[in-house]
Each structure stands twice: as C-alpha cells, then as structure tokens.
Design a protein that fits this description.
It is globular, with a radius of gyration of 28 Å. It has twelve helices and nine strands. The protein has a seven-stranded parallel sheet with strand order 6-5-4-3-7-8-9, sandwiched between helices. A two-stranded antiparallel ribbon has the order 1-2. It folds into two domains: 17-48, no CATH class; 80-276 and 283-290, Rossmann fold, CATH 3.40.50. With 291 residues, it is of the alpha/beta class. 31% of the residues are buried.
Length: 291
C-alpha cells in the first residue's frame, strides 16, 4: 500500500489558519473555540478589562495555594500562641471587651502570641491587650462584602480571601482557643475546633469559653439534646472549659502545656486534661435506636 503524504491545499481553496501548533479550516473557527480566531501572540498581548481566566477554578486553586504558602511563611516562627475569637460588634466600653483586653495582656506576659481575626470588637481588644503586654499581636483578616479592615493593634497582619485557609492558621499555630461571646462566625470556629479534637485530627488542646452567662444555655442544650439523643458521647461535653476569669483561663492553658497532664486536674475543680482515651467514636446506629 502506498503511504499517504500531506499535500498542500489546492490553490483554489482558502489556506488554513495556524495558531501555535494547531491549524484550523476557514469557517470552522466557531467549532474549535474563539481562541482559534487569533494567533497566540495576539491573545497574550490583549488587555481585556478582566481576563476570564481569573475566575476559572484552575486559577483560583493557585490563589488558594498562595494563601496557604503566605500564611505558613508568616506564622512558622511565631512560637507559642493562643487564638482568641468573639464578636466584632462589641464596643470598647463593654465588659467582654475589657476581659478580652485583660486576657491579651496576660497572655503576652505569659509568653504567648495572640492570634485573632484582625477585626474590631473582641478581636481588637485581644490584639490591643497583647500589644500592651509586649507580645506579638497577629491578625488574620478576611475579605468580606462589607470590608473589614485590620484593627490598629495588629503587629503582624495577613489578608485572606478564603475562610478555610484562614481557619487552618487559627488551628495550626494555636496552643489553645479562647472563645468570647459572638455570633455565627464565632460558633463556626468553636465547633470546628471541637470536631477536630473529637475526631483526633489535631492533638488535644484547651477550648475555653469566656462568659458563663452567655454560654451556659448552649452547654445546657448540648447536654439536654445532643447527649440525650446519643449524638455525642458524655466525654465530648468535657472538651469545653467554662469560666468568667481571664486569670483562670491562663492557668488552664499553662496546665495543658506542662509535660505532665495530671497537673491540669489540680488547677480548678472539674478542670482536667483531655486524654486521647476520652475521645470516642460517635454513637452507633444501634445505640441511637436504643436511646
């Protein structure tokens, strides 16, 4: 069989258009995509108002990766740190603001950096106290429709587009969580931490709720509903520590950092370390049926 060979287009037919390594028959560009209507150099040198590729998932994944890289680089050498959460709506004359400011100052004097969301309210108070105590005040700010700028008491600020990248920084570089009264965002961070501890995705660390009056109803609901329906185990309730005293919060954090966990049990009545053996699997279907 005689092998076929490429032949040039007949002189009476329009020549094919070439773009990079591709060729396209005249009249078929609309079938191959719009980019086939111009050369690669033309496409590269065009300057549209907003290139479509900026909104594509592959490009978005690079931005996500960049947020992780920048966050890891910025926080890798921070040392001991505590993440503090709470409402952005609390004003400076509120008692919770004063408590958060006191806590930030005490943490700094105890050798801890303070990590917050970088915004106003409780976040500002904790950053302010940390700065006043001579510690490193860190703010992980998030891009929101209603812009939330970094508060003026942040020493090291990191801007994030994505909540999940920001959350990783709060957990990865924290030795403890302190949760002041707040709304949905605060609850999100609280239950994210509890889930990671319960499922053993992170090593146990203290999750301290500041404000017995504010959080007491939620603890009652957890016991009366979640525990009663076997949605969680009894030990899961003990993952939380509840207090009104910033000094007690510091003592609990320090106790957790000691090499001998039994020291935490002597800090305050009912305060004990979370042992890995205490973290159990969720209730089985059979247990749900029996309850």
């Amino acid at each position: 069989m005689t092998p076929t060979t490429d032949k040039p287009d007949p002189p009476d037919r329009p020549k094919r258009r070439r773009t990079g390594r591709l060729t396209i028959r005249p009249g078929a560009a609309h079938l191959a995509g719009g980019r086939m209507t111009m050369t690669e150099d033309e496409a590269l040198l065009q300057r549209p108002l907003r290139p479509d590729f900026l909104d594509s998932d592959p490009w978005r994944s690079l931005r996500i990766l960049a947020e992780f890289v920048e966050g890891f680089d910025a926080l890798a050498e921070v040392g001991p740190a505590v993440s503090v959460f709470g409402s952005a709506r609390i004003t400076s004359n509120h008692r919770y603001y004063r408590q958060a400011r006191d806590l930030g100052r005490m943490l700094a004097k105890a050798g801890y950096a303070v990590i917050t969301g970088g915004g106003p309210g409780i976040m500002e108070a904790a950053n302010r106290g940390c700065q006043e105590g001579g510690g490193l005040s860190i703010g992980c700010n998030i891009e929101l429709p209603k812009e939330q700028g970094l508060n003026p008491y942040v020493d090291l600020g990191i801007e994030f587009r994505y909540f999940f990248a920001r959350k990783v920084m709060f957990v990865k570089y924290a030795d403890a969580f302190v949760i002041f009264p707040g709304g949905y965002g605060t609850l999100d961070e609280l239950f994210e931490a509890l889930t990671l501890i319960q499922t053993q995705k992170v090593q146990d660390f203290p999750v301290i709720l500041m404000g017995t009056e504010y959080w007491g109803g939620m603890i009652d609901w957890i016991r009366a509903s979640l525990l009663a329906e076997a949605a969680i185990n009894r030990e899961d309730v003990d993952l939380l520590r509840l207090t009104d005293d910033p000094e007690e919060a510091i003592r609990i954090i320090r106790a957790y950092q000691r090499s001998h966990h039994e020291a935490a049990a002597a800090v305050e009545p009912g305060t004990k370390p979370i042992e890995k053996a205490d973290v159990k699997k969720p209730a089985s279907k059979a247990e749900h049926a029996e309850s």
